[in-house]
Amino acid sequence: MKIPSNLKKGDCIAIVATARSVNASDLKEAIQLAESWGLKVVIGSSIGKIQNQFAGSDAERSADLQTQINNPKLKAIWCAKGGYGSVRILDLVDFSSLQNQPKWIIGYSDVTAIHCHLQTLGVASLHAQMPVGISSKTETSASTLRDVLFGKKMHYCFANHPFNQTGKVSATLMGGNLSVLYSLCGSASFPKLENVILLLEDLDEYLYHIDRMMQNLKQNGVFKNLAGIVIGGMTDMNDNRIPFGKTAEEIIHEYVSELKIPVAFGVSFGHLKENLAIPFGKEVHLMVSEKGTEIQF
C-alpha cells in the first residue's frame, strides 16, 4: 500500500467539491484552521459551482479533482462536503499518478466511494472531518486530522460497549460509509476485503435498509475473511410505521456476533459530534477488552 508523505508547515493542500455544491463562504473556518497549522490552501474550481444538487457537472467536478491530483505542489486534497456525487466521477478521473506520488485524499461519508476506489489501487487515504461544518464538531475532530496529516502516532480509547467482541489484531483498515460501500458491491471500485479491519458508519437510513445492506455484505462473503470490525456512528436512523424492532447496532450485532474476530462498537468515527481522523490503507492496531477499545496507528 502506498502511504502519502507526512505534511509539514508550508505545504499546500487543495479543497475540492466532489459531490454536493459548496459556497466559498462555507469554507472560511476550515481555511483559517488549515492556515493556523501552517498550510497553504488552494480553492478548487468546483467550489461555488452549482448544477442542481451537485457542485457543477460531473465533467467539472472530475476536472477539478484531476487538476489537483496532477498538481505536484499539492500534498493533500480535502473534499469539501459529502451528500452524493463522488461515485459519478470515479470513471472520469485518472488516479494512477497517486500510485507513484500518493497524496492524502481526505473526507468521509460520500467520499467513501473515492476511498474504496483508492483501496483497489493500493493507495492510502484519510477518513476524517470535511471542511463544511467543521466548526460544529469537537476540537478533537480537527486536531486529530492535523495530527494524522503531520505524522503523529495516534492512540484512541473508547468506552466498553455491550456488543463488543474481545480480541486484538493488527491489520489494514478499510471501509467507510455502509450505504456507499453497499452501492459499490460488484463494481471495479469495491475493494478486496480480506484480512482487513472493516470500518462501517452511516446516517439517515431506514433500519430495514441497514439490515438489507448487511445481508448483502454477508451473502457476498465480505465477513468471512475479516480480521476485525469497527462500528462508528449509526446516526439519525429512521423507522417505519410498523417498527423494525431493532436498533441499527442490534441489527449489525446480529450479523457479526458469530464471527471469531475483535469487534468494536461505539467508536467516534462518522456522522457524530466527534469524528476522529483515521487512515484507510494503513495498518492499525485494534485492541478490544472488557475495559473498552483501543486503536493505535
TrEMBL record:
UniProt cross-references to SUPFAM superfamilies, sorted A to Z: Class I glutamine amidotransferase-like, LD-carboxypeptidase A C-terminal domain-like
Short name of any one Pfam family annotated for the protein: Peptidase_S66
GO biological process: proteolysis
Domain LD-carboxypeptidase C-terminal: residue ranges: 171-286
Keyword Protease appears in the UniProt entry: yes
UniProt KW Iron keyword: no
Domain LD-carboxypeptidase N-terminal: 13-128
Protein name: Peptidase S66
